[in-house]
Fold:
Amino acid sequence: MIQPKQSSLLENNTHIPFGVYDDLISNVDTSFWDKQGLITKKRRTERKAWIFFGVYSPDLICGMAIVDAGLVATAFSYFYSLKDGVFEEDKTTLPLGFPSDFNPDLNSEWKLGNYSIKTNNGKISMQYIGKFKMYIDAENNSNGVSIVAPSTDTRPFNFTYKNQCVPVKVQINNKGVNTYATSGKYGSIDFTKGYPPREITWNWLSFIGNTETEKIIAVNIVDQFNENMENVLWVDGKKTLLSPAVFSKHKPYDKTDWLIETKDGILNCHLSPRGARSENINAVVLKSQFIQPFGTVDGTVMINGKPEKFTALGVVEDHFAVW
Structure:
């Protein structure tokens, strides 16, 4: 059940109850927990925060992320043109990339090297200027969900906010040779901040598309992370929580289809990769290994008790982290 909207993570010197809440929890100040720790504080050793913005349009799949992992910061950007098959990506990793007093919410300014994300009253401006140039402008709305999930050991919680079908405009200049653009309700937001388990493996699916009766459909599903609490289906903006899901996949993950089905029988689909981006960070204080295939999605979804076929574009991910 999606609970009513909450304004703050902190309540009576603890976090609000674990659960799924409507819309964005705007006050995600974590200073109460960040300062805990005898020698090393949770801010550097346990707290992680990131923004990932994806775009899944008929012309273009692209994404940008900035991650504050405490002792290390990373960022990446990529795009894939469905018209001509061009794929480009770039990434950066910096030790102590954000100051110790960086305590962001979705309206904060995030900047790391060639990457920046700024939000003002729900209007999100993102840019990457480096190997290629990418400009993304989006406008958030009230259709998202906030999840406060349990963590492990002394780590108090993990918070994540997800929203799909966000209006977006994208402009990309690839080395002055090719330009790409798209616009529409193709944006996907993942804003996460909290204290996830030290070691974690997860699978993830995110897509936006249309059913055979022209309903706009979107999904965010994760397995083995946040106790599977962030599994949400959007149909024409209406949100429904989904059960845990089963991901069936075979290596090489970027060359073979992924099959995903929810245990409640509402969603059954497969993603056929068009390409993938991957990363393997193996530092003393951080390990992050993932592959994120992107491509076409098709399957069936139960809407009001009736099955409908759908097609979509999106991403899946296999991720292992020690942080």
The mean pLDDT is 96. DSSP finds two helices and 24 strands in the chain. The chain has one domain: 2-322. Residues 2-322 form a domain with the AttH-like fold fold (CATH 2.40.370.10).
